[in-house]
Amino acid sequence: MTRDEIKDMILEIIEDIDEDAEFDGLDADKPLRDQLDLDSMDFLDIVMELRKRYKLQIPEEEYPELATLASCVNYLEPKLKEV
Amino acid sequence: MADYQLIIIGGGLSGLAAGIRSARFGQKTLIVEQHHLPGGLNSYYFRQGYLLETGLHAMTNFAPRGEKHAPLNRLFRQLKLSRKKFITHEQLGSEVIFPGAVLKFSNDLNLLSEEVARTFPAAIDRFQAMAKEIAAYDPFAEVPWQSARKFLSSRLADPLLEDMLLLPLMVYGNAEEHDMDLGQFAIMFRALFLEGFFRPEGTIKDLLDMLLGQYEKFGGEIRFRAPVKKIICDNERVQGIQLQSGEEITADAVLSTVGIPGTAYLSGWPLDFKNYTGRMSFMETISMVPAANLQQERTRRTILFYNLKEKLTYKRPDTPIDPSWGVICFPDNFQGLEQKDPVQARVTNAANYDLWQQQDPARYKRLKEECGQLSAAAVGKIIGNYRQDVVYQDSFTPMTIERFTAKPEGAVYGSPIKIKSGKTPWQNLFIAGTDQGYLGIVGSMLSGVTIVNQHLLK
């Protein structure tokens, strides 16, 4: 997957989790949680979706890598290279 | 390999919600339910052409769509259900009625504040400060038991106001007698006074069908009429379950929603059952009454919480029922619902399990009739004599609750001691539902969700 594809995929997962998600004005370098008003339970769903879709196991100590859209892309790029 | 990754015992609201969470991410999941219908305490039955709900008076925790952190909306996201398509009807308004004092409340805390200011002018500032404190309180922190009564008396210093606030919060969710844990008080205060009552469009059946449909869409399996005989376990782990039919089904993990005593019974968990068996049970009488027989002023309300004495005595009565306090609910009185005729009225009073349990069938039937009359006489003081010309009437007692739900001694709110972590002595056996400490329909579903998230998805 390219960086752009990963970005789209993350947004698609979030949209799937929250039917009221608004992406207008989303800053890729700011925490997704604050901007989208999500909580830790929603965050777990992003992790679970990644596992379900790509068989990715993300250990709990690496969850902070998914904090912003930009950090998600950086973190997932090597892991999803072959996808 | 085990037959299932997760087996859930009980197809009530916590079990269904747990099942959806588990199946949603591809885990092979089985729910086993002893009855032919889902719902547990919140189910339904048909009599004389009416669909009657067994538990639901109202759902608590109302939140408009868009309030993302509200428990109701978080729950919908977790279950991947559309809040957009979930139509809700808010309450018309409710009342707490004591001798010489009435507090009206709705889903807007301002009404309750005005009522407190009117009836307890000296306490209004203290009440508002307390409401703020409760809104900020973390009820899910695992802290030792603290007395809600002590808290209230230190904050409000007005025994009548304290009792009036406690009545709805206790009767809708307190498993303990006399007092309640401060954390439970905070959960209930928010659920009733800060969020409020509503009901979903349709009946509990529609809600259950929606949950079951979602569970099955994710590939979850459910077996009805499948009572469990035991949980198969060795020293550290459980292996699965054995049904009463003798069939054995293995699983990587088991989640039990049948309460602490029920789970202990099935697994051989050595604990003192008495400490985990709640003493609060109720008798409820459902009546269909011609609208003309009811006083409009009081009956165009959603729920009336009444106490005919000066003080609230929240305990198991020494008589089969205690009609001196209770709940009168009109389950069709919600905004946007047509007024029906006959009107459905449900009256709930505390009941003594032992005194019902001792009766032979003939005396049980007679007692039900007598208690129905006692209850109607008491309730008549509030809403007028409605018992004449009742079109249809049916009652359930602690025995009914015990038979149809997994609640020993008919204790609807389960064990007075909760296990918030959901853990048991076995590393892959967990509990969810009433005895984990969340209450109400939204609460019990969040319990199922939380325990799966914490222990069964990682």
Describe what this molecule looks like in 3D.
The complex is a heterodimer of chains A (83) and B (458). In chain A, helix 1 crosses helix 3 (40-54) and helix 1 (3-17) packs across helix 4 (69-79). Chain A has helices spanning 3-17, 32-36, 40-54, 69-79. Chain A has 83 residues and is mainly α. The mean pLDDT of chain A is 92. Chain B has 458 residues and is of the alpha/beta class. Chain B has helices at residues 13-24, 71-78, 109-119, 124-136, 148-156, 159-171, 182-195, 204-217, 259-267, 296-299, 353-357, 361-383, 398-404, 440-456, and strands at residues 4-9, 29-32, 44-47, 50-53, 88-90, 94-98, 101-105, 198-200, 221-223, 228-233, 238-243, 248-256, 281-289, 303-307, 321-329, 343-351, 392-396, 429-431. In chain B, the strands form 4 sheets. In chain B, strands 1, 2, 9, 10, 11, 12 and 18 form a 7-stranded mixed β-sheet that branches. In chain B, strands 7-6-14-15-16-13-17 form a 7-stranded mixed β-sheet. A two-stranded antiparallel ribbon of chain B has the order 3-4. In chain B, strand 1, helix 1 (13-24) and strand 2 form a beta-alpha-beta unit. The model of chain B has no long low-confidence stretch (mean pLDDT 94). The interface between A and B is medium-sized, with 17 and 18 residues.
How far is the N terminus from the C terminus of chain A?
Answer: 6 Å
Helix content of chain A: 55-70%
Number of helices of chain A: 4
Strand proportion of chain B, as a percent range, falls in 15-25%
**Derived structural class of chain B:** alpha/beta
Protein structure class of chain A: mainly alpha
Based on CA inertia axes, which overall geometry of chain A fits?
globular
The profile of the biggest β sheet of chain B is: 7 strands, mixed
Shape of chain B: globular
Distance between the termini of chain B: 19 Å
Could you tell me the number of beta strands of chain B?
A: 18
Regions of chain B with pLDDT < 50 over 5+ consecutive residues?
A: none
CA radius of gyration of chain B is 22 Å
Oligomeric description of these chains: heterodimer
**Low-confidence residue ranges of chain A:** none
Helical run tally of chain B: 14
